[in-house]
Structures are given as structure tokens and as C-alpha cells.
Queue: 4 jobs
Job 1
Amino acid sequence: MNTVEYSNTSHDENAHQEARHKLPAMLHGARQKCPNCGKGSIFTSFLKVAESCENCGQELHHERSDDAAPYFTIFVLGHLIVPLLLILETHIFPPLWTYLVIGIPLIITLTLLTLPRVKGAIIGLQWALQMHGFGPEEEISLTSPLDPELTGR
Ligand SMILES: [Zn+2]
């Protein structure tokens, strides 16, 4: 019988950090709720992230979802829409006007529905991974560009 021993070095190093579960945080974010409590709203408008949670006070302004939300939205919707278009064009042959009347509004609607949910899930993941200031307080040392040690004066 073989036994496998795993090193817990990385866990020991992070033992002082609180455990945050990724999936619940991402699901809270996908529901556009605070990744910490799941109750407060994560957005103040369509994609504008709140400074902090109105329910638990968790600071949310640390998020840096940047281009990840549009990237994953395009990734997910592209994998749904392109096969659908290929099936339509190879089996049903709809007239071109149906793409203008049904296809484009459908794609725009799906994008607008998906984008805030994906952004919320990314913020939830960043919170769970304690990225970008979501973690424990870090000592930030800002040095002035006029600092004598840096300028050599
Ligand atoms: Zn909260």
C-alpha cells in the first residue's frame, strides 16, 4: 500500500489569511451581489462597482476586472452563437432579414444580460483569491520621487 504525503507549506504560509471559497463568491458575484455576504448589491449602476457593500461594508473598489469581463462574455456567447449560426446556415437557410430583425437584437440582449454577471463573478473570484487589496491589510510603502535616498542627494 502506497501512501502519498502532500506538503502543506503553502497552506501554512497562508494560515493567517481567512479561508474564502471561490465558487460561492463567484455565484454571489454572478447574481450581482456582494461576494462576502451575498446580500448587498455589487453594482451601483449597470457596470459601475459600488465603493463598498451596503450590507456588510466589504470594500469593493479594489476590483480590477478590467477586460476580463468582456473577454469571457465574448468567449461564452461566441461558443453559443457561432454554432447556432452554422446550424441555421447549413440546415434551415433563413432569409437574411431574419438576422437583422432577430439575430442582432438577440445578440445585443444576451451580451447586456451576460456582461454584468460575468463581471460580478470575476470580482467574486478576485475577492476569494484576495487579489488587488481584497486580502489582509498590506503595508504600502510609497516613496516620494524627491526622496533623498532615491535621488542620491
Ligand atoms: Zn456584503
Job 2
Amino acid sequence: MKVSKKILNLLHDQIAMEANASNYYLYLSSWCKVNGYEGASSFFQNHSSEEREHMLKIIQYLNDLKINTVIPSVSKPSQNVKSLEQVIKNSLANEQKVTKSIDKIYGVAQNENDHRTSIFLEWFVREQIEEEDLFESILQKFDVIGRDKLALHEIDKHLQKLSQK
Ligand SMILES: [Fe+2]
Ligand SMILES: [Fe+2]
């Protein structure tokens, strides 16, 4: 096999993590829609698709090496969101968790001199910088613009714009 058992297990966990992220953002998109945040809803709909793309990238990497992948079942997200700010906070926390996980696999790949996997993961390392920055910047808006109804409307419009990019 072209990757070690350890790397394979970690990549399988990562496939599950991306699938769960996609599922979680779908829940957030749905929550936003029902609660009147149209912009945030489209933003999270797109973000959910992006996470699915991440999952597919890893599956493709393994398949290109002629390695079978395990397609994970997704877990039901905890449906406990109460506010738009919490939606963003939870998303940032999720991205921080993903960053840790990517860093871990990258570290193992480097230790094993698995350059192929290291190079493959570089895309994810860079992506996580953007992902954390994205949610940190949105979260900052609550401090800058505020949390009253008008401010939330502005933030929703901002998310609408982001979803069109
Ligand atoms: Fe991701
Ligand atoms: Fe992400």
C-alpha cells in the first residue's frame, strides 16, 4: 500500500470529519433560513458543499493510489443553536478542530517521510488558514456592528455577499 496504516486511518477519520462538517453546516443553513437569515442560509448552504468537496478530495487522493476508502456515516448534529452569533462561533470552533486534525496528519506524514501525503495535505493546511480567518472576521462584525436587529440584518447581508463570491 502506498500509505501507512496509520495515515490511512487518519485520512479516513478526516473523510468523516469533512462529511460531518458538511452535514453540520447544512443544519446551520436550515436554522438560518427558518429564523429569517436568508443571506446566512445561502452562505452555509455553499459552505456545506465546500466541505463535501474536501471529503471528495481525500477520497480521490486515496483512490488515485488504488486504495479503497471507507465512506463514513454522518452523525446527527446537536441541534442547539439559539442565535446567529452562536452559529458563527460554533463554525469557528469546528474549523479550529479541523485545523488541529489536519496538522496532526501532516505531522505524521512528515515523520514517516510520506512526501506524497505531505504535499497533498498542503492544500488543506492553507485552506484552514482561510477558513479560520473567514469565521473570525465574521465574528468580529458582531463587536463592530452590534447585536441588535438592524446589526444582525447587516451581518446577514454581509453573509449574502460572501455567498455570492
Ligand atoms: Fe473542510
Ligand atoms: Fe471548513
Job 3
Amino acid sequence: MEPKYLKPGWMNWAGSIILSILLVVIGLVVLIAGNPGTGITLIILGIIIILMVVVKRATWTYVYNDMYVETRKGIISKKTSQIDLKDVKNIQFKQSIFERIFGLGTVAFASAATGSIEVAFAGIPDAQKVKQEIDGLIHSVKSGTAGTKKCPQCAELVKNEAIKCRYCGYEFEQQ
Ligand SMILES: [Zn+2]
């Protein structure tokens, strides 16, 4: 399975975004009111804050596939945390009041090794759906059915790449 990449929702930085809009608006008012020095300073400050949000979100990635879950953070030094799906002890859906307002949620993964949360997809859209999908992936890894598909003719499990069922000879449609 190709890895899927997720980003936190913009509204994780709602405070910074509102602040930068305020700074730009106030800066424009001050500028028009006849104080260009202060006005332009406020506008630049607002732009810097929004750029910081853009950079932070761009360097913040959540990855999952049928083998692992992973978070990547950081601009210069990348900090990566990963847990193998077979080592996930439990998976939790969390939602702060703030996240609920903006339709975001957090999916957190505890590893069997430490029992504590080591990977968290914080502030993502459709968090419930992502949790369900990863729940399914973990289930298939732990039950040994990962990377397989069910033959529609004999209901046996064969490898995803198979073009012909090894039990009954059913030929799968080529993709
Ligand atoms: Zn078959």
C-alpha cells in the first residue's frame, strides 16, 4: 500500500492567523491615517506571522500505510517518530473543544513497547475516518491478512499482486 500523507488543518493555528489578519488590518488603518512607518511595520509583522504558520504546516507531515504510522516535524532537523502497526497497543481518538469547533481531531497511537503515546496525528480533518481506516489496517496486520485480497469465487485469501487464485484458478481483473 502506498503511504498516505496527512497535514494538520489550518485552524490549528487559528490564533496566529487571526492575529496576523488583525495586524494587517490595523496596519492599513494606521497607514491610511497618515502614519506610514508604524502602518508598514504592523503589516510586515502580520505577514511574517502568517509565513511562519505556512512554513510550520508545510514541514509537519503525518504518514501511514499498512506497515507503520509516522510523524515528521521540523525544518532544519527533522524529527521522525514511527510505530510499526503490529506494535500498536491502542489507538485513540481525541478532540478538544477547540478542535471540535473547527472540525478537527487527533488520532493517537500508543506502542506496546512503552505503553505511552509515541505517535499522534494532531489536529487533522476527518480524524474519525482516519482512525477507522488505521484500525482496519492494524486488524489485518495482526490477523495476518495484510497484503491479501479475498478471491470472489472461493473466498480464500490470496496475495494482492496475484492475477490468478492459487486455490481455484479464478482470474482477477487486471488493473
Ligand atoms: Zn479462488
Job 4
Amino acid sequence: MAPAPTSTSSAVTLHVNGEKYPLSVDHRTTLLDALRERLDLTGTKKGCDQGQCGACTVLIDGRRAVACLQLAVAAEGREITTVEGLAEGERLHPVQQAFLDLDGYQCGYCTPGQICSAVAVIEEHAAGWPSAVTGDVRPEAGVPPLTAEEIRERMSGNLCRCGAYVNIVEAVARAAGARAARTGGSAA
Ligand code: FES
Ligand code: FES
């Protein structure tokens, strides 16, 4: 049974990968530590622990966020998706499959964050969100092509110490293309 709340802790229910997890957390506990240390969801990695590397990227209500800069208490009731929640049974998410097929990693430490980030990047792009390198940001210009330059910019919050960037860009482009083919949209 979870310990009773105190002046420095609260009872919260985290919604992670479609499951509800009631737990008591110290108010200073980050979402990253709650996922890894309390829920044993160790797919989400701790790199810098200060918001600079992207290794801890998860999706919160479909938007990417670095879990090391989120307090667990502030994530209560929000829909959190970690890398463990992307596959459907034995079927990998298309982004996971593309990383696998195209060797989008070496040591793999940054990979869960890269994959979660790429999932959101592809949706952001499909929704027409511009990036810092988008040439024409007028609404009437429509969805910008998802060029390699666009992918690099949109994924620039996720660092890879192995330097697997070339294959990561290819994997994101392939997954975006597959999404466009499924939905009739455009990726490039
Ligand atoms: S561990 Fe969160 S951004 Fe580096
Ligand atoms: S694959 Fe090793 S840090 Fe990215």
C-alpha cells in the first residue's frame, strides 16, 4: 500500500502507456525518476538530467517532453507514453521498425528518446507545424516538405554521442513516408 501523503509528498495517479499507477511521490521527484525508479519503466533513459540531451524524451498528451524537467506530481492525470508503450503487441511502431531496419543507433542509449521524439516530429510535421528552418511559414504555404534539413532541425533536441545521426535522419524520413502513404498526406 502506498504511504500516506505528508507535507513533502503526495498521492498521485500516473497514466502511463494506458495503465493507471497510483503512487506516493516526494514533491521533488521528477517524472523520469518516477518512471524508472518507481514504475520500473527503464526504457526512458537518463543522460544529462538537466534538459539538454533528450535521452529522457517521452510523450505527454501526444507532445514530446523531457521527463527530467517534469515533476511527477505535475504529470498526474496526463496521458504519458514511453518507448515501452509504442509497439502494438509484437508489432513495432513504424518508427521503431525504421530505426531497426536502417541501423539508426549504435549503443542505443539515446534511441528511446530519439524514437519518442521522432514519433511526435512526424505528427507535428503532418499537422503543418513549421520549424526554425522552414522557408515559408505562411499558413497558405501548407505542410513544409520534410527534408533532411527539416528532420535535423526538428530532432536537434536529441543528442547522440555515437554520432548515428545519418541513419537516424533516414529512419525518420522512412517512417514519415510510410505515414504519408497510409494517410494520403505528403512527407517530402
Ligand atoms: S536526461 Fe533529460 S534531457 Fe538529458
Ligand atoms: S546510439 Fe549511442 S548515444 Fe546514440
